[in-house]
Amino acid sequence: MIEHSFLQALILGIVEGVSEFLPISSTGHLIVVGDLIGFSSMPGKVFEVVIQLGAVLAICVLYRQRLFRVVLDAPHDPAARTFIGAILIAIVPAGLIGVLFHDFIVEVLFSPYVVCTTLILGGIAIIVIERLQLEAKFTSIETFTMRTALQIGFFQCMALVPGVSRSGATILGALLVGVERKTAAEFSFFLAIPVMLGASAVNLAETWELIDAAHAYIIATGFIAAFLSALIVVRWLLNFVSTHGYTIFGWYRIVFGGLLLVYFLARG
């Protein structure tokens, strides 16, 4: 039983780390993989929160020098203040809507069929937007206007619907307002830090009583797996999208969403 739970936690941790920062929906992947491997050795929501924190930690480690520099330079560097301001402004829309409609999202929208639909529609959106050949006006976060950051923040609100993908909504929104591909990906990474930390804090507060010390090894396994796999994926993604764009992720979403729909329909 212990070995079985360890393997399940390892698999789900890797799935979270790989899918969280790609525009393919970590929620959709965790739902289907968790169901396929029968992961039920501990409260799933608690585990999901913890492995998300592992993925966020990977961003903090990879960009530690840039983050420290921005914080230290903020008092005297306008570019550093622009960076911080863009992040803070972009998280406001989703934060407000998430708080106001939290119960509705959890009770109504967390449906396998909603996830399947948004996966497919999101894939189509990626393909269409990539074919627009949009002009890149912003090549670094430090050059963002506050209006640009707010616009991206509104796009991020779509990610409150399960299956849309937080990174996907942020990246597509950034591309549409004139952000270069690599910078769009990086902005989605940095936005993940406050957004996911805030969401994790809320979820942990709601499920704290479910945490059992006996499950510590499962939690630790998933956390470490998510952290290490996210480190690898984030480095790879930046290099990949700089030369290949996001179209392949659009086709992947369509295929995965279609297979997922067949899977849930077959289960009845």
Structural notes for this entry:
This protein has one domain (2-267). Helices cover 78% and strands 0% of the residues. The protein contains 12 helices and no strands. The protein has helices at 2-19, 26-37, 44-62, 64-73, 78-100, 102-109, 112-130, 146-156, 166-176, 181-207, 216-244, 247-267. Helix 3 crosses helix 11 (216-244). It is globular and about 50 Å long. It starts with a helix and ends with a helix. The model has no long low-confidence stretch (mean pLDDT 87).
Shape: globular
Number of strands: 0
If you compute it from the alpha carbons, what radius of gyration comes out, rounded to the nearest whole angstrom? Answer: 18 Å
Distance between the termini: 29 Å
Largest sheet: none
Please write the string of helix (H) and strand (E) elements. Answer: HHHHHHHHHHHH
Q: How does the helix and strand content classify structurally?
A: mainly alpha
Q: How much β-strand is present in the residues? A: under 5%
Question: How many domains make up the coordinates?
Answer: 1
Uncertain regions spanning at least 5 consecutive residues: none
* Helix content bin: over 70%
Instruction: Kindly report the average pLDDT value.
Output: 87
